[in-house]
Amino acid sequence: MSFYDSDDEPPNLIEVTDDAILSTLPDSTSVPNTARAASDISATQQQSKSLSQPKEQAPKNVRVPLTIICGFLGAGKSTLLKRILTERHGYRIAVIMNEFGDTADIEAKTINVASADDPTAENTEEFLELANGCLCCSIKDSGVAAIEKLMLKKGAFDYILLETTGLADPGPIAGMFWHNEEYATGLADITLDGVICVVDAVFGKKQMEEDHHTDDSKIGESLRQISGSDIVLLNKADLVSPSDLHETEAIIRSVNPAAPIYRTVKGEIDLGLILGVQSYKLPPPLASDEEKHARVHSDACDHDHDEEEKPLNHYQIRGVTSLQVTCPALSQAQFDKLDEWIRSVLWENKLPAPATPSTTEGESPEIRVLRCKGAFTSTTGKHYVLQGVRSMYEISELEENVAGKDQNEHASVGLPDRGKIVLIGKGLDDQVRKSLESVFV
Ligand SMILES: Nc1nc2c(ncn2[C@@H]2O[C@H](COP(=O)(O)OP(=O)(O)OP(=O)(O)O)[C@@H](O)[C@H]2O)c(=O)[nH]1
């Protein structure tokens, strides 16, 4: 069946009135219509008209960054979205609010969620003008076809935000956008900037505990969301005590040590920390424990730091664990061994056979890596970044102008003295650590 069979066909643009514009905003009262300049209005009308057919002068060679916003049910995803859309950031943003819940469908690229009996799945596509002068194209549809069709309007917006449902697993969605070269149409024009997970400071810990207690062969959604994220926002920080915040942060960090955690109230955050961060291109912020500790506690930090590093002795998150291994500058042989090791673990879910088999070590448990990141150098002085989502991974050489940047210039840039590899997933025990470390001997 063709992807563009009539049932799957994404909707055409509908003309919108000012009332329609305001009613589609997350909170229409917060966007004063009078704030729009006449020139902005005519620009909007011009854009609206041009939407039904691609603008000929639209730049075709620039990739549009996309940020996925996932997070627990009611954690504050829409609040964050609203905040981004009403900030003066200069981006013209396309927003996709969708029902990307059935991840298997996404992987199969056969999504058609607009089922006749789902009243929320009505196909609408609207073009909005916001008070800050940015344009917002909102697609309340959920198929890949809708995104591809959106990309035909490339040039009308320069950033895409995709808000998933509270139950969505961001991994397959991120994977789809990350390695989209195989798709012939619009998706190839998108570059994945990063995945933000909004965690509810009030219920997040309970949610993770519940997911932790589920069947050990499964991984709960909240843990998948945290493990698949590049940035975590611990939202509703106003509603809980500092010690509760700290405890939730510790759990999040134990699941995903590679993601910076920022405390927020109603999604209030410097947008430079979450948008345009190029998580899949630049070295991950694999800070030392001390630096990570400082970053997590940079603001609203009013608790006793001596209390901080107490282990979580009442429970451990069993569903997902992480493994961090440092590595020296790699020779070509070590580089090849690392590549082979990663392939075995990500593709075959097992450790490669050791060069000298040990009689003391038993069968390795099944390994399931949800996410891996790393940054390291070669003995020839080249810098590399490792990125992986599920079974897909990429080791890319860092451009010299990026590698040479001062660490302070960009939160994500700056190579550690020693390389570091982080794996997040299941079955990452000491045997896996030893096996990975043996690559660097
Ligand atoms: N006190 C407080 N309330 C917040 C904060 N952030 C969001 N809320 C409120 O929490 C409720 C849920 O926020 P939403 O932004 O709708 O959450 P969501 O993640 O989009 O919800 P779903 O789409 O249903 O999963 C709303 O009533 C918000 O006003 C915060 O930082 N502090």
From TrEMBL:
<dbReference type="Pfam" id="PF02492">
    <property type="entry name" value="cobW"/>
</dbReference>
<feature type="domain" description="CobW C-terminal">
    <location>
        <begin position="367"/>
        <end position="438"/>
    </location>
</feature>
<feature type="compositionally biased region" description="Polar residues">
    <location>
        <begin position="41"/>
        <end position="55"/>
    </location>
</feature>
<keyword id="KW-0342">GTP-binding</keyword>
<keyword id="KW-0862">Zinc</keyword>
<feature type="domain" description="CobW/HypB/UreG nucleotide-binding">
    <location>
        <begin position="65"/>
        <end position="262"/>
    </location>
</feature>
<keyword id="KW-0143">Chaperone</keyword>
<dbReference type="GO" id="GO:0016787">
    <property type="term" value="F:hydrolase activity"/>
</dbReference>
<dbReference type="InterPro" id="IPR003495">
    <property type="entry name" value="CobW/HypB/UreG_nucleotide-bd"/>
</dbReference>
<keyword id="KW-0547">Nucleotide-binding</keyword>
<dbReference type="Pfam" id="PF07683">
    <property type="entry name" value="CobW_C"/>
</dbReference>
<dbReference type="InterPro" id="IPR051316">
    <property type="entry name" value="Zinc-reg_GTPase_activator"/>
</dbReference>
<comment type="similarity">
    <text>Belongs to the SIMIBI class G3E GTPase family. ZNG1 subfamily.</text>
</comment>
<protein>
    <recommendedName>
        <fullName>CobW C-terminal domain-containing protein</fullName>
    </recommendedName>
</protein>
<dbReference type="InterPro" id="IPR011629">
    <property type="entry name" value="CobW-like_C"/>
</dbReference>
<dbReference type="GO" id="GO:0005737">
    <property type="term" value="C:cytoplasm"/>
</dbReference>
<dbReference type="InterPro" id="IPR027417">
    <property type="entry name" value="P-loop_NTPase"/>
</dbReference>
<keyword id="KW-0378">Hydrolase</keyword>
<feature type="region of interest" description="Disordered">
    <location>
        <begin position="24"/>
        <end position="58"/>
    </location>
</feature>
<dbReference type="InterPro" id="IPR036627">
    <property type="entry name" value="CobW-likC_sf"/>
</dbReference>
<dbReference type="GO" id="GO:0005525">
    <property type="term" value="F:GTP binding"/>
</dbReference>
